[in-house]
Amino acid sequence: xxxxxxxxxxxxxxxxxxxxSVVLGVxxxxxxxxxxxxxxxxxxxxxxxxxxxxxxxxIVGVRFFGISRGVFRYLERLVSHDTTxxxxxxxxxxxxxxxxxxxxxxxxxxxSADLLQRIVADIQNLENFFVRVMAPPAxxxxxxxxxxxxxxxxxxxxxxxxxxxYLLAGTIIPYLSIQLSQGLGKKITLLKSELNVxxxxxxxxxxxxxxxxxxxxxxxxxxxxxxxxxTLQKRMLSIExxxxxxxxxxxxxxxxxxxxxxxxxxxxxxxxxxxLAVLVLGIMAAFEGVLPLPPMAQYLEENxxxxxxxxxxxxxxPVLADPSVPQTFPTDSQIKIDIKDLSFYYAPTExxxxxxxxxxxxxxAKVAIVGPSGSGKSTLARLLIRLYDYQQGHIRLNDIELxxxxxxxxxENIAYAAQAFHLFTGSVAENLRLIKPDGTEDQFLEILKxxxxxxxxxTPAEILSYQIGEHGxxxxxxxxxxxxxxxxxxxxxxxxxxxxxxxNLDVETENEILINIYAxxxxxxxxxxxxxxxxxxxxxxxxxxKDGLLIGAATHQELLESxxxxxHMFSVYQESLLLG
Amino acid sequence: xNLDSRLFKLIKDLKxxxxxxxxxxxxxxxxxxxxxxxxxxxxxxxxxxxxxLESLLPAVFVFVLLVLGRFLSQWISNHFAIQLSxxxxxxxxxxxxxxxxxxxxxxxxxxxxxxxTNTLQQGIEALDAYFRSYxxxxxxAAAIPLLILIFVFxxxxxxxxxxxxxxxxxxxxxILIGGLAKRATQRQWKTLSFLxxxxxxxxxxxxxxxxxxxxxxxxxxxxxLSEQFxxxxxxxxxxxxxxxxxxxxAATISTAVIAxxxxxxLLYAKLPFxxxxxxxxxxxxxxxxxxxxxxxxxAGMEGFEAAQRIFEIFNFPFRTTAVDQIKETPxxxxxxxFNQVSFTxxxxxxxxxxxxxxxxxxxxxYVIIGTSGSGKSTLFNLILRFITPTExxxxxxxxxxQCWPEESWFQMISWVPQKAYLFHDxxxxxxxxxxxxxxxxxxxxxxxxxxxxxxxxxxxxxxxTIVGERGxxxxxxxxxxxxxxxxxxxxAPIILLDEPTANxxxxxxxxxxxxxxxxxxxxxxxxxxxxxxxxxSADTILALQNGRLIDSGSYEELLQxxxxxxxxxxxxxxxxx
Lengths: 580, 577
Description:
The structure holds 2 protein chains of 2 kinds. Chain A has 2 domains: about 1-315, ABC transporter transmembrane region fold (Up-down Bundle); about 335-580, 3-Layer(aba) Sandwich (Rossmann fold). Chain A has 19 helices and 10 strands. Chain A has helices at about 1-10, 15-45, 55-100, 115-125, 130-150, 155-205, 205-210, 215-270, 275-285, 295-315, 375-385, 405-415, 430-435, 440-450, 460-465, 475-490, 505-520, 555-560, 565-580; strands spanning about 335-345, 355-360, 365-370, 390-395, 400, 415, 495-500, 525-530, 540-545, 550-555. In chain A, β4 and β5 (about 400) form a beta hairpin. Chain B is an alpha/beta fold. Chain B has 3 domains: about 1-155 and about 290-320, ABC transporter type 1, transmembrane domain (ABC transporter transmembrane region fold, Up-down Bundle), CATH 1.20.1560.10; about 155-270; about 335-575, Rossmann fold, CATH 3.40.50. Chain B has helices spanning about 5-10, 15-45, 55-100, 105-110, 115-155, 155-165, 170-205, 205-210, 215-240, 240-265, 275-315, 375-385, 405-410, 425-430, 440-450, 455, 475-490, 505-515, 530-535, 555-560, 565-575; strands at about 335-345, 350-360, 365-370, 390-395, 400, 415, 495-500, 525-530, 540-545, 550-555. In chain B, the strands form 2 sheets. In chain B, strands 6-7-8-3-9-10 form a 6-stranded mixed beta sheet, sandwiched between helices. In chain B, strands 2-1-4-5 form a 4-stranded antiparallel beta sheet, with helices on one face. In chain B, about 40% of the residues are buried.
């Protein structure tokens, strides 16, 4: 339950809006009660044929309730939606804020797309928290209280009868249906994800299934899961229907007992018969308060699970901390990088990704880091921009330990074009403005020219306003990679690290872009991480990594002569050019 | 109105269930009417006729029975609605799955799989609201008010008339304002979902933002944007919610009108009290079904839209259209001949393969080379019958491949793609896929040949280890070996191998080559090659360029001046120098 309490605490800044929305909801139910009670009063009174003047007040009441109920309903919907938006915005910002320091070291490796998608879905799920989970019980409680007070004015017995049935409908019945549906809900979620796995298997593995004549077996597998899911869903829906049925039953239970008590009291002369219809119709209207409770059970469960997962994530302490007295980052672009005895593992239980690494990169040097995937190339880059902290050894910039700089300073001055990147929905210019909000169009165009993205269109305006689609879907793989590269280049940092940025490009484009970049960064340090060994003659130094170990550091010619591993890599690269 | 004949067809076999849903809903309505009748009578008898509780007990008893009857028939109606919706969804999902199994993997790969699974999951779930509430509600909204009118008119003409004239207000306004408001709301929900998409985008891109050192500045932007969106949304909803206002008012104001109208006539003794009360109690019930219809309209709409996508899937093209299938099930062949074969992907301008002529002899090794996009995988897809030649024929011993029974053709083929798909199941099940009744010995032997056995053995669960998302992930090299192990296990006469690209690690690279070389010599091997060493061992090399077969011959032949390999190697030499 503590998850729900924590979620409730998160809503505290908006308590006024929440209160207003709940009050409007209660007024809507209240005017409904008023309408029916006043109407019943008119009819009962009229049956005694008094003068019309005696009905005047009730008639005005009926008119008032008839009109105001619509108005209250309208305002309630408006305010509750407004509150929902406010809360959702608040939730998003809060979770974004809490997650920022945890990415990516705490949230797994860089390729944790599944996890992020789940987080996003969980936050989205909280959209229902106010309207479906918080508001209904609050409104049910307050409108019940209102009716209780109203009925008390006719006699405490009437009020108590109502209270018993209303409480049953508002607490015991929802509790039972939550209990009954709880286990079911979990099983359904589980089955759904199982079904999802099998369906994905079917779609992604269709070739294998067809060739090996296993489609029928797979169909049967899906059919079985589908059968189980359908059975559980039916049970779940039945519980919900039964819940609603019982609420009606309790409503008429309250009506019947009130009738019996009323008739008895009229008989005994202790109760004016005019009010019998008034009470009965009032009670019928009052049960409107407990009607939205049945679906609440399900949402409560979902929100609780979502909240739990979110809190679990954001409760983790960040891995990296800024030093209490940070060093100022060297402002001149001449930075010497010195790596000594560097070892790193992602988790103590895992094998070290880098072992006793030693490298020296001179100011303004152009170097390449090559090696098979899994050799630790990208990890080294992540350490250099302080996404992770190394456990052993040193990385020194101009003889100052990397750890003694502020994270923001490091990332501002060391630009990293990552292999896995994310482009944002919108135009090319918007994606660039994200990096440089005050950048001019000319600056943007200049950078786009470097990465040869000016091919997107013939006019500058069209290039900049080109909509790249969700996750850059409207760009080809190579174009997306180049736009991500343009973002990095725009930062104008003193060190540039490129990580497989030319993987999706043809050799010609690759060459042209690299020439442009090296011209642009002529005096600054560039580290190119790659497994495509093109233009290797160009580099001042080539570091060869294998299984986290440095097995070679020299120029291209020297490596070809002395390093068989490098030689093999080079011939594989040449074969790939020939055979694709 | 969200009606679609294709959706109605789904009910065709479940007409009985649908009828029962409606029938019991109407029965519920009748119980409600009689309940109102008894309630008003009891109050009348006590209040005006001053009858004792004792004499009223039978009437109270009937009232209680009616309450129970209403509860029961409502429950039964719901039960049938649930049956109906569950059955339709169950069948539909199975039918979709079967349909997808009959389509070509090649066409399927053009679709977004995530979106497809989403349709198979949530899309079908969305139909629940349509069949369980929207559709029955549509009937109820028409039938129940009519039923109430039948009872009210004989009692009081005026109230009946008020009902009759106010009733259409709700649907009319729902259509008038509703249509307008719906568009406005939809537009707004779209902008709203744009906002949430924007925020999701930011969270998904958080690592990138952090790398670019822009994660902090984005937070302020998110805040201001959210606030702007909230304000514009609310100003639109202010108008959109007017429909809710009108709906609510139509119901409450007419209740108020009826109360005053019958009240006044009661006053002048033109109407008995019990009848007046009866009408008043029924007034909210009269409008209830229409309001419920309004409430389920949106959910129904969602189901309706999901259905459109579902029906699209039923139009996916089938894999093969075997015309005159040959009766016998051959299990061997001596030649495969491509006779003027061309293929164009649907919707594409370029021919993927053009006028291909060549012949494959049993027991020989063929290697296909060419740059990406030259048509290598299209050639494979044709042999796998995932696609049918747009022109020309593929002949197996002179008989059209399309006439062969799919079963017997696939029995002869082992397919080893570069990236074998691993099912979320045990390693054993992933191997057994190619030979369901293989013995444990056979499986282990295949894995030994693929040099995977030792690795599997040292896993805590051995061959029972689950692979995939919730199990262990196999490395790229291990997945390649598993694909090769499948080929060893299936031991089919034809092997289609898309050779794994060379590993940068020389040792691992050598191992894969050695494994591939162990594939049984007596098989017919067709290999898309990525290594020079593979070319040397081929009987025939087929060189593809832009969909045309531009050269073929042995390795030595193709190295002659002017031939394909000679030209390519020359180009390569120039490029790197």
